[in-house]
């Protein structure tokens, strides 16, 4: 035991501060997300869409995207798992309104289905976003209360935590001094990898629709690529994001990567008794059976002009 303790002390001194790193309150190393730790969030027309999307707790976001429509407007969207409202929609970074939980689920499942049958939804992003806008309840203020008890699969739940293996190895390394030494050296390398991961993640998250292909590729080469009729999907499953490009320009940024999920975890898009033939940009709201009345959400709507 004394030998083990001695080796452990030497090893700790060798790897330096790597084993004493303190948790970062804004750590987003798991699943490409910012974790604000917020239990509630008030969103108004003064809120910035990108900041709101990044402020949603990791377990409360089912998906989020930013897309340029044919008119050049930026449509931002986040689907929620544990609030009374199903999702928030923004136009040019400004809150436009909410959608129901029923519609959020149908929109998710149908676009996943479309992507899975080799017709990536982003190819028809403008048609999908147009129909999304037609389904919203206009709102100028929305109060989101996060229960922390997700009933739908969150982004956090569908991607792996790159640090999990490290934690397991530390727990399971036993008392053998050579195993301890080996594990601690591995941990040091993992910490370096973690810093590089966070650096790359932040760079990718700074990309906005309208960016050029070489701006994305300069950060890191895509982990997977899909060639479509009029574009290209650059997928980064490790960072839980993908970029859809057309004409060398980023048109859609999607998290998590539907391209990757459609090939590896397509069951996440499954819904019982769905009419998959209706999963089109025009009819997706009719594709899933009704799940009962949606819970009411307190929103403030624009006052009508005139009498």
Describe this structure in words.
Helix 1 packs parallel to helix 7 and helix 3 (101-116) packs across helix 9. With 307 residues, this protein is an alpha+beta fold. The chain is built from nine helices and twelve strands. Helices cover 34% and strands 21% of the residues. The strands form two sheets. The chain has a nine-stranded antiparallel beta sheet with strand order 6-5-4-3-2-11-10-9-8, sandwiched between helices. A three-stranded antiparallel beta sheet has the order 1-7-12, with no helix packed on it. The protein starts with a helix and ends in a 7-residue tail after the last strand. The longest helix has 29 residues, at 177-205. Mean pLDDT is 80; it is low at 1-36, 161-174 and 294-307. Strand 10 (241-246) and strand 11 (249-255) form a beta hairpin.
């Amino acid at each position: 035991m004394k030998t083990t303790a001695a080796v452990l002390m030497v090893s700790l001194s060798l790897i330096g501060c790597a084993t004493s790193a303190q948790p970062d309150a804004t750590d987003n190393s798991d699943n490409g997300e910012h974790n604000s730790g917020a239990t509630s969030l008030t969103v108004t027309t003064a809120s910035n869409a990108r900041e709101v999307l990044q402020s949603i707790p990791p377990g409360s976001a089912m998906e989020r995207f930013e897309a340029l429509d044919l008119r050049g407007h930026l449509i931002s969207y986040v689907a929620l798992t544990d609030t009374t409202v199903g999702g928030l929609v923004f136009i040019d970074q400004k809150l436009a309104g909410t959608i129901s939980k029923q519609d959020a689920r149908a929109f998710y499942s149908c676009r996943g289905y479309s992507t899975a049958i080799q017709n990536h939804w982003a190819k028809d992003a403008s048609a999908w976003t147009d129909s999304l806008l037609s389904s919203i309840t206009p709102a100028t203020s929305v109060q989101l209360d996060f229960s922390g008890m997700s009933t739908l699969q969150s982004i956090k739940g569908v991607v792996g935590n790159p640090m999990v293996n490290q934690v397991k190895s530390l727990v399971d390394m036993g008392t053998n001094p050579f195993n301890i030494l080996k594990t601690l050296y591995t941990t040091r390398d993992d910490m370096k990898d973690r810093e590089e991961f966070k650096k790359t993640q932040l760079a990718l998250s700074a990309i906005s629709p309208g960016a050029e292909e070489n701006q994305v590729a300069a950060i890191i080469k895509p982990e997977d690529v899909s060639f479509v009729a009029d574009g290209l999907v650059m997928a980064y499953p490790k960072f839980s994001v993908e970029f859809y490009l057309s004409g060398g320009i980023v048109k859609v940024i999607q998290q998590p990567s539907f391209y990757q999920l459609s090939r590896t975890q397509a069951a996440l898009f499954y819904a019982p008794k769905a009419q998959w033939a209706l999963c089109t940009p025009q009819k997706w709201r009719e594709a899933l059976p009704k799940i009962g009345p949606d819970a009411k959400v307190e929103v403030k709507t624009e006052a009508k002009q005139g009498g």
